[in-house]
Amino acid sequence: MAAPDVYRTIGDLRAALKPARMAGERIAMVPTMGALHDGHLSLVERARDEADRVVVSIFVNPTQFAPHEDFDAYPRNEDRDLEQLKALSVEAAFIPSVREMYPHGFATGVTVGGPSEGLESAFRPHFFDGVALVVTKLLLAAMPDVAIFGEKDYQQLCVVRRMVRDLNVPTEIIGAPTVRESDGLAMSSRNVYLSPDERKTATSLPATLREVIERLERGDDAHDVLSQARRTLEDVGFKVDYLELRDGETLGPVTEDTQSRRILVAVWLGRTRLIDNMAV
Ligand SMILES: Nc1ncnc2c1ncn2[C@@H]1O[C@H](COP(=O)(O)OP(=O)(O)OP(=O)(O)O)[C@@H](O)[C@H]1O
Ligand SMILES: CC(C)(CO)[C@@H](O)C(=O)[O-]
Ligand code: BAL
Fold it and tell me: What are the BP-aspect GO terms (predicted)?
């Protein structure tokens, strides 16, 4: 197994991918912020199935963090990440500096409406502008045929799909299922912030979502079910940012035309913010 080639500039990445593209190879990209776990690795495996060549980007993107958020504390471990990518025979890692992505004088933004409204945006108003901007730049840097995003960040996946459609970016976006710990907690780089006690409590989050789904499928009133689930979460110590049932395709409100519903949640446990979602 060879370690991935590491590219730190957009120019070097483009030059390296050019021969593969000219030879008609299919290129897949997996954008990440590093601190890789099995959730990320499942995206890489999916990318492997989809393409001849896999590029994983590792970039903790400052424009999606508000000044009071955890940009500085965000876990970073490039050597360990590269070891994991080596084990999966990933050919290329794109690890740009903040200066490379946002050179002095940078003055452009990307704003997506539709699915970015509400949910995360109500609590992290800057977030999707930062994600849409950096994903646009990453896709333009690698020009992949396909890019894989996790359903764990379901609203992000919907926003990226909308941005790619609206801007005619020639990349197919694939959503991959959420990988969970054995007790059901969605894997997330931020789980390392949890104390041992908080980690035990955290398992109530997916358990509560599963109860919500069971009750909705039994036909219980959605408003009652959500109010009770919110109280359950608060009783075990979560502070709830949102717990909402949405149309699974548009992320708008559930209407008569809704084909699939999705329950989405964001909570705080001490200083850690957790998000999760499940199809109903
Ligand atoms: N448990 C998971 N299952 C599937 N995909 C995941 C999982 N966790 C993250 N991803 C996906 O990996 C990609 C990179 O995510 P990111 O690097 O932010 O990791 P993260 O674990 O979500 O970190 P954070 O704690 O910042 O939310 C995103 O497309 C995200 O949806
Ligand atoms: C898509 C992404 C890599 C953009 O920085 C990030 O939001 C993430 O890791 O989910
Ligand atoms: N996984 C999404 C990146 C973020 O929450 O900042």
Answer: pantothenate biosynthetic process
Q: What CATH number has the domain bearing residue 268?
A: 3.30.1300.10
- Spatial separation of the C-alpha atoms in residues 51 and 145, rounded to whole Å: 8
104 is catalytic: no
Q: Is 50 in the pocket of ligand 2 (CB under 6 A)?
A: no
Per-residue pLDDT tens digits for 186-243: 999 999 999 999 999 999 999 999 999 999 999 999 999 999 999 999 999 999 999 9
DSSP annotation of 248:
T
Atom of ligand 2 nearest to the CA of 64: 5
User: Which tokens go with 26?
Assistant: 């299919």
- Among 149, 176, 203, the domain boundary falls at 176
Q: Is the domain of 253 the same as that of 207? A: yes
Q: Ligand 2: which residue has its CA nearest to atom 10?
A: 32
Ligand 3 binding site (Cβ under 6 Å of any ligand atom): 64, 153, 156
